[in-house]
Amino acid sequence: MEHVYLVCYDISDQKRWRKIYKTMKGYGAWLQLSVFQCRLNKEDLLKMTDTLTEIMHCDEDNLIIIDIGVAETVSFKVASYGRPFQPIKHSAVVI
Length: 95
Fold this sequence. Notes:
Layout: E1 3-10, H1 14-25, E2 28-32, E3 35-40, H2 42-55, E4 62-70
Antiparallel strand pairs: 1-3, 1-4, 2-3
């Protein structure tokens, strides 16, 4: 069962930030500078979390993963200004 996650990170080093960003592009859709929307099952969530925590320095960086809910039933209430917000549709994840 897939859930929708909001993944936010604050990385103090540009090189690590770029690695995190490139990694995240394989798991979800980029929303803003350090924010991604992901639609993942538990296995992919664990893989993503393991990869990200290996890259980041836990004493300097921060990662927040917010579980929005079950992907099939989640209802977005989003205020978006500028580019329109597009929820992720069900599709294969290429990593």
